[in-house]
């Protein structure tokens, strides 16, 4: 009797990375065929190695046809780890903080402009 084929998950890619998702844009992900482990840090990775790995991952993202979809997905979830949409987790936190500040500013009443006298 035939057994169902189990999907092979690369242990270097936590579930949820574009190459493992099954959504409409994930099949276009450039990282589907790239070196495993490029997008997520191994434990106790030295800073210089992390920076080098992240730059290599960003170069893959730069030629990815679904970079904007991926980036927005990672910002909306939000995805706490790894390089998504050409951005590191730290860079995404900065963007999210800016978005929150902008939302707060938009909710404030507009300043009254005094009439010139
Ligand atoms: S933008 Fe980067 S992380 Fe996102 S799908 Fe493309 S290659 Fe993968």
UniProtKB/TrEMBL annotation:
Domain (4Fe-4S Wbl-type) ranges: 30-94
UniProt KW keywords: 4Fe-4S, Cytoplasm, Disulfide bond, DNA-binding, Iron, Iron-sulfur, Metal-binding, Transcription, Transcription regulation
Post-translational modifications reported in the UniProt record: The Fe-S cluster can be nitrosylated by nitric oxide (NO).
Sites where the protein binds [4Fe-4S] cluster: 31, 61, 64, 70
Region (Disordered): 1-27
One record GO biological process: cell redox homeostasis
Cellular component GO terms, alphabetical: cytoplasm
KW Membrane (keyword) present: no
Transmembrane segments: none
MF terms (GO), sorted A to Z: 4 iron, 4 sulfur cluster binding; dinitrosyl-iron complex binding; DNA binding; metal ion binding; protein-disulfide reductase [NAD(P)H] activity
Required cofactor(s): [4Fe-4S] cluster
Protein family: Belongs to the WhiB family.
Function: Acts as a transcriptional regulator. Probably redox-responsive. The apo- but not holo-form probably binds DNA.
Name this protein carries in UniProt: Transcriptional regulator WhiB
Native organism: Actinacidiphila rubida
């Amino acid at each position: 009797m035939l057994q169902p084929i189990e999907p092979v998950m690369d242990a270097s890619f936590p579930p949820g990375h574009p190459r493992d998702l099954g959504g409409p844009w994930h099949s276009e992900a450039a990282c589907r065929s790239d070196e495993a482990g490029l997008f997520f840090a191994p434990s106790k990775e030295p800073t210089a190695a992390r920076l080098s790995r992240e730059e290599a991952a960003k170069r893959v993202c730069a030629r990815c046809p679904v970079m904007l979809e991926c980036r927005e997905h990672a910002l909306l979830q939000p995805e706490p780890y790894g390089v998504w949409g050409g951005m590191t987790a730290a860079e995404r936190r900065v963007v999210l903080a800016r978005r929150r500040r902008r939302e707060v500013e938009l909710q404030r009443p507009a300043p009254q402009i005094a009439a010139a006298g």
